[in-house]
Design goal:
This protein is α/β, with parallel strands linked by helices and about 575 residues long. It has four domains: about 1-90, RNA polymerase II/Efflux pump adaptor protein, barrel-sandwich hybrid domain (OB fold (Dihydrolipoamide Acetyltransferase, E2P), Beta Barrel); about 115-260 and about 385-445, FAD/NAD(P)-binding domain, CATH 3.50.50.60; about 270-380, FAD/NAD(P)-binding domain; about 465-570, Enolase-like, domain 1. About 25% of the residues lie in helices and about 30% in strands. Strands 9, 10, 11, 12, 13, 14 and 25 form a seven-stranded mixed β-sheet that branches. Strands 16-23-17-18-19 form a five-stranded parallel β-sheet. The chain is globular and about 85 Å long. The structure holds nicotinamide-adenine-dinucleotide. Nicotinamide-adenine-dinucleotide (NAD) binds near residues 297, 314, 315 and 316.
Length: about 575
């Protein structure tokens, strides 16, 4: 009865600004329809800008614009009335939809088929995909970017940026606790984890909007949905009720990675979190066990310990952060211990049990002995795996790496299908955001006819423990393994004036010099500003600079960068401000 009543009914439909939060305003940049013009659901009516990001207001109805109530350049707020449409709301049948029997739900769900064409279709809008999209647009390509979730990928939404926001909150909390040492007083210091998390969310929001704005400014068409590669020239994606077939000259797969989990009993218990869950906590646990002492495990160990949580790390290998040289590992392990972080190495987690009192018990074996630790929360940080979801690699004939982990690519980021490229974590080469972005640029340049390759020998890594750790080029351990004759120069931050004023005397800079050429082959830093300072060593390694080149370069005083100058001196003729 009701359905028959709705049949073909026309009404005046309000178009309001709904996609703003109540505190912000937006500027109307463009009005795309005129009074009297016909519109259908999905048609863009207005383009707006807010917080340096742009977005559009679409029609949710079929009909004729009866009134436009805003002007270009006008400022509008959430819920403001922008236009009126004389017609039928989205999902209601119109007389022209009717071909016999009326089917309300059939029309509501009726797919809208669309066809598009472009030069490059990019699947995945993380730091690999969105950077590739901007680069391609800058080089003149017509680009479509497909993202099923939020622009920015793991890095921006669940990885690098949110963890750094938490790192900073923990740092502020600890600086306040340490205020007396700096001649300042701070009282009633506490952590409000809900506010810590909402600060993190605000930062993410701002950055996501920024990426959206830049993509729009470069005329990159962003489609929200899961891209399916039908063949080397066809990508299919559903966006709401729209079924879009994209005819494309090239495809870049940038679908990223997802957290791995151990195949052990108890892995799915409610107390077990992955790194994404750990970023969304609304209550701090008293005790936490972190499974895995890799990069994620150690960053979270320092974050949560910084907030006052009792943290234990259980690591399978004989060392945490096993990729680093042993002096770095010793230093960070000593500092972690000093902060009360307990670390069990050579320990294999075998089971997680839910205790009667609601506590979880992590069971692991060390030296053939079973050990048990109880905790309120367990964080699983045992690596990430390429995300191939939605990509039918087998029927496409896409070749995978050994053991099927990741899409196989050559140095140009090209897969075995010449016009399909893959970048970022999905290639399982080096799972870092900056590598994904660089690979994206390399892929685009090659597509656009500019030969390009990535140099994997000079990839800086940056670990946000407290203090930070960074490394680039070859390490001492790797040099020995490869039979490269090297000399090492070291300078402790305890001898740096700037570091001492900051209250940061922990750590050192280490330079690896090739004996026969004097060239800097690598370096590592643990200490204040390590993750920023590593850029100088990266440039030296990339450009084949010798120790003399760096020694002759004046470093500003007083800065932590002087520690690099001194470490390079130590590798050559001896440091000035330190005697070994
Ligand atoms: P990872 O591979 O660095 O560390 C996982 C650790 O878990 C390993 O040390 C492994 O030995 C251990 N492990 C595995 N099984 C175990 C078991 N049964 N019991 C105990 N320990 C076990 O992986 P991750 O830390 O999860 O990071 C995932 C990826 O993300 C890495 O490639 C990393 O480089 C990247 N990432 C980088 C940064 C950064 O550079 N700042 C930050 C986050 C993530």
């Amino acid at each position: 009865m009701l359905l028959l009543f709705l049949r073909g009914i026309k009404m005046i439909i309000d178009v309001r600004l709904e996609s703003l939060d109540s505190t912000s305003e937006a500027k109307v940049v463009r009005i795309l329809k005129k009074t009297g013009e016909k519109v259908k659901p999905g048609d863009v009516l207005f383009e707006l800008e807010a917080d340096k990001s742009s977005f559009s207001v679409e029609s949710s109805a079929q009909g004729i614009i009866s009134e436009i109530l805003v002007e270009e350049s006008q400022t509008v707020k959430a819920c403001d009335l922008m236009a009126k449409i004389d017609g039928t709301p989205c999902g209601q049948a119109t007389a022209s939809d009717d071909n016999g029997g009326f089917n309300y739900f059939g029309n509501l769900l009726k797919p809208r088929k669309q066809e598009m064409e472009c030069d490059i279709t990019i699947i995945g809008g993380g730091p690999g995909g969105y950077v590739a999209a901007i680069q391609a647009a800058k080089m003149g390509a017509k680009v479509i970017l497909i993202e099923k979730d939020t622009l920015g990928g793991t890095c921006l939404n669940r990885g690098c940026i949110p963890t750094k926001s938490l790192v900073r909150s923990a740092e502020v909390y600890n600086n306040l606790k340490d205020a007396e040492n700096f001649g300042c007083h701070a009282e009633k210091i506490s952590v409000d984890i809900k506010k810590v998390v909402s600060r993190k969310d605000r930062i993410i929001n701002q950055l996501v909007k920024g990426i959206d704005y830049i993509l729009k400014k470069h005329n990159v068409k962003v489609i929200k949905g899961t891209g399916e590669i039908k063949d080397s020239q066809t990508v299919f994606v559903k966006e709401g009720v729209a079924e879009i077939t994209i005819k494309t000259k090239n495809i870049i797969i940038a679908t990223g990675s997802k957290s791995s989990s151990l195949p052990i009993p108890g892995k799915d218990l409610e107390c077990v979190m992955d790194s994404s869950d750990a970023l969304q906590m609304d209550e701090l646990p008293e005790k936490m066990v972190i499974i895995g002492g890799g990069v994620i495990g150690m960053e979270f160990a320092f974050i949560f310990s910084g907030f006052g949580v009792d943290v234990t790390v259980v690591e399978f290998l004989d060392e945490v952060l096993a990729a680093f040289d042993s002096d770095i590992i010793e230093e960070i392990s000593k500092i972690a211990k000093g902060k009360g972080i307990k670390i069990f190495t050579g320990s294999k987690v075998e089971q997680i049990i839910q205790g009667e009192d609601g506590q979880s018990i992590v069971v692991f074996s060390k030296d053939n002995e079973k050990k048990y630790i109880s905790a309120d929360k367990v964080l699983m940080a045992v690596g990430r795996q390429p995300s191939l979801d939605g990509l039918d690699v087998a029927s496409l004939g896409l070749e995978l790496n050994d053991k099927g982990r990741g899409i196989k690519v050559n140095e140009k980021m090209q897969t075995n299908i010449p016009n399909i490229y893959a970048i970022g974590d999905v290639t399982n080469r080096v799972l870092l955001a900056h590598v994904a972005s660089h690979q994206g640029i390399v892929a685009v340049k090659n597509i656009m006819g500019v030969p390009s390759e990535i140099d994997y020998n000079v990839i800086p890594s940056a670990i946000f423990t407290d203090p930070e750790i960074a490394m680039v080029g070859i390490g001492e351990k790797a040099a020995k393994k490869q039979g490269i004759d090297v000399e090492v120069g070291k300078f402790p931050f305890a001898a740096s004036g700037k570091a001492l004023t900051m209250g940061e005397s922990r750590g050192f800079v280490k330079i690896i010099k090739q004996k026969c050429t004097g060239k800097i082959l690598g370096g590592a830093i643990i200490g204040p500003h390590a993750t920023d300072l590593i850029a100088e060593i990266a440039l030296a390694v990339k450009k084949g600079l010798t120790c003399e080149d760096v020694i002759e370069t004046v470093h500003a005083h007083p800065t932590t960068a002087e520690a690099i100058h001194e470490a390079v001196l130590a590798a050559e003729s001896g440091a000035i401000h330190f005697v070994n």
